[in-house]
């Protein structure tokens, strides 16, 4: 497992530019010698390679997909790395750029596929891995491209090995709206401020109004709210205090802001970029209507929406979530929590296609900064969990599984 992960980490695939050709070739090479494995390449742009790796069982049956992305964050603070960004094993940890997000998860998928291929007589149907690019830029040329063009990229259920934790299974995630706000004013010398009209002041007033979205009432299903509350004692220590409140409410983050031309001029132009995250219980259309209402009376301020996606979730007691929880318990010796996810993943694209989906990946440490690492014991455990869950889901073993590990 460590060897698989190190080989993938050594192939750089940072965004930008998001070139996944080399790591796709390496992933294909690492599993090419496994009997009965079928490897298909689906480029969606000159620099974006996507793979579908298939293993068929003893006969017809259901299809399970493992999904993972091959693109990573860029190398940040290179001078601060004490480990080799191309991969280094040290003190029970595996360091490397993108090892948690998510080349360790890719290694676990390849490990699981290899074991399932060697025991094809024990299960029916098909297991496929969709290894994609473009996830860091929202997946239109990766997972969405495969879902639109490759019939066997779809499945009866999907497990994503994206960054997370096998101790907290993520059955859903928040939606989002990315927008920009542009304000225009009238320039004047700052000493004669009465002759101008500050675009920055207009923008700040509109931003203040937009923040009222955080108090918007949410009609979330009781099943989701209950899951968030039950998961909180285990989930928050891993993901940060306050996660539960964030999962239940709209958040508004002003991620970029700039304006003006000189220190002694009233600004005639200003712009902000805004990230809005939506919990289950509210739709994009509702929030966009409320945004328009809040900002409408601010003259000189215009809005442009750049990206949007709905909140999504799979029933927390769906068969695939239940089996995954069962095997996490068997391998780790502790019952995992089931919770929503704050950030977006390609799982939302599968849910949008009507495919029940759950995220079970590696706990990220220092993700997006120096000395990113994962725990090797957890990496090994994840490979076992994925293989066992696929075997149970495709092998007709589900009738003997309890509704939850605690029941």
Describe the fold and architecture:
The protein is α/β, with parallel strands linked by helices and 407 residues long. It has two domains: 2-173 and 313-400, Aminopeptidase (3-Layer(aba) Sandwich), CATH 3.40.630; 175-309, Alpha-Beta Plaits (2-Layer Sandwich). It is built from eleven helices and 16 strands. The strands form four sheets. The chain has a six-stranded mixed beta sheet with strand order 1-2-6-3-7-15. A four-stranded antiparallel beta sheet has the order 10-11-9-12. Helix 1 crosses helix 3, helix 3 crosses helix 11 (376-394) and helix 9 (319-332) crosses helix 11 (376-394).
CATH superfamily of the largest domain: Zn peptidases
The tally of helices reads 11
Largest sheet: 6 strands, mixed
Roughly how many Å is the radius of gyration?
Answer: 23 Å
Summarize the structure.
The protein has 407 residues and is an alpha/beta fold. The protein is built from eleven helices and 16 strands. The chain folds into two domains: 260 residues, Zn peptidases (Aminopeptidase); 135 residues, Alpha-Beta Plaits (2-Layer Sandwich), CATH 3.30.70.
Show the helix and strand layout.
Elements: H1 2-9, H2 21-31, E1 37-41, E2 51-56, E3 63-69, E4 88-90, E5 93-95, H3 99-118, E6 126-132, H4 143-149, E7 157-160, E8 168-173, E9 175-184, H5 199-210, H6 222-239, H7 243-248, E10 251-259, E11 269-278, H8 284-295, E12 301-309, E13 312-313, H9 319-332, E14 337-341, H10 347-352, E15 357-359, E16 373-375, H11 376-394
Parallel strand pairs: 3-6, 3-7, 7-15, 8-14
Antiparallel strand pairs: 1-2, 2-6, 4-5, 5-16, 8-13, 9-11, 9-12, 10-11
Helix pairs in contact: 1-2, 1-3, 3-11, 9-11
């Amino acid at each position: 497992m460590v060897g698989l992960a190190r080989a993938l980490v050594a192939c750089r695939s940072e965004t930008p530019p998001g070139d996944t050709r080399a790591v796709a070739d390496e992933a294909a090479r690492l599993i090419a010698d496994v009997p009965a494995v079928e490897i298909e390449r689906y480029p969606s742009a000159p620099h974006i390679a996507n793979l579908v790796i298939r293993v068929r069982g003893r006969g017809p049956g259901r299809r399970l997909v493992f999904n993972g992305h091959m693109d990573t964050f860029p190398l940040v603070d290179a001078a601060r790395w004490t480990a080799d960004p191309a991969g280094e094993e040290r003190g029970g940890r595996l360091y490397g750029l993108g090892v948690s997000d998510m080349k360790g998860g890719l290694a676990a998928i390849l490990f699981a596929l290899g074991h399932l291929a060697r025991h094809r007589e024990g299960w029916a149907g098909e297991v496929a891995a969709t290894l994609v690019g473009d996830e860091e830029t929202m997946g239109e040329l990766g997972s969405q491209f495969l879902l639109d063009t490759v019939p066997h990229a779809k499945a009866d259920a999907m497990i994503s090995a994206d960054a997370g934790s096998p101790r907290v299974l993520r059955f859903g995630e928040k939606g989002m709206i990315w927008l920009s706000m542009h304000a225009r004013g009238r320039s004047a010398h700052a000493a004669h401020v009465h002759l101008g009209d500050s675009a920055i002041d207009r923008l700040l007033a509109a931003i203040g109004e937009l923040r009222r979205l955080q108090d918007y009432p949410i009609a979330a299903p009781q099943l989701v709210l209950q899951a968030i509350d039950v998961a909180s004692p285990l989930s928050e220590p891993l993901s940060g205090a306050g996660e539960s409140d964030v999962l239940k409410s709209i958040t508004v983050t002003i991620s970029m802001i700039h304006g003006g031309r000189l220190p002694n001029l009233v600004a005639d132009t200003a712009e902000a970029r805004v990230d809005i995250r939506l919990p289950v219980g509210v739709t994009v259309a509702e929030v966009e209507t409320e945004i328009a209402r809040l900002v409408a009376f601010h003259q000189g301020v215009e809005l442009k929406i750049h990206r949007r996606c709905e909140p999504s979730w799979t029933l927390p007691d769906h068969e695939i979530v239940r089996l995954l929880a069962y095997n996490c318990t068997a391998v780790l010796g502790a019952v995992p929590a089931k919770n929503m996810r704050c950030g977006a993943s390609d799982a939302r694209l599968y849910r949008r296609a009507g495919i029940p989906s759950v995220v079970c990946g590696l706990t990220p440490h220092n993700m997006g900064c120096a000395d990113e690492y994962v725990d090797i014991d957890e990496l090994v455990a994840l490979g076992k969990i994925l293989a066992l869950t696929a075997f149970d889901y495709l092998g007709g073993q589900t009738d003997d599984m309890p509704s939850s590990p605690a029941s």
